[in-house]
Amino acid sequence: MKNKILLLIINFLILHQINATQIPFTQDDKERLIRLEIKMEEGFKSLDYRFQAIDKKFEAIDSKFEGIQNQLNLISALIVTLVAGVLGSVAYMWWDRRLANAPIKEEIETEKRKYNTLVVALKEYSMNHPDLKKIFDNAAIL
What we know:
The protein is built from 3 helices and no strands. It has helices at 2-20, 27-128, 130-139. Helix 2 runs antiparallel to helix 3 (130-139).
């Protein structure tokens, strides 16, 4: 605790001594400060001009990126439209073929029933006629 108080007193004395000693400020120092201030203002103006030029370049780059983004949006919209068109065409073709094939399927079923009826009739007929049964057996029809 004593060490802390001693350090505080020493710091206070050193800071008081530094503040107590004043450095004389000459006319030459004032002129230097004015020249330095003028140079700093010119430097800041130059920096400001450079930052404005950089801002303009960034704005140009931003506008180019916006143009590219617009093109990408257009391309993606075209791709979506194309895919939707292809899928719609495929769906329409499937639906149309299904409708067009329905009467054909019905006709095929009718012909199958007639064929099965004919086969049953021929089997029954071949039971009474052995020569016809022999022909069907050799041909492996029945």
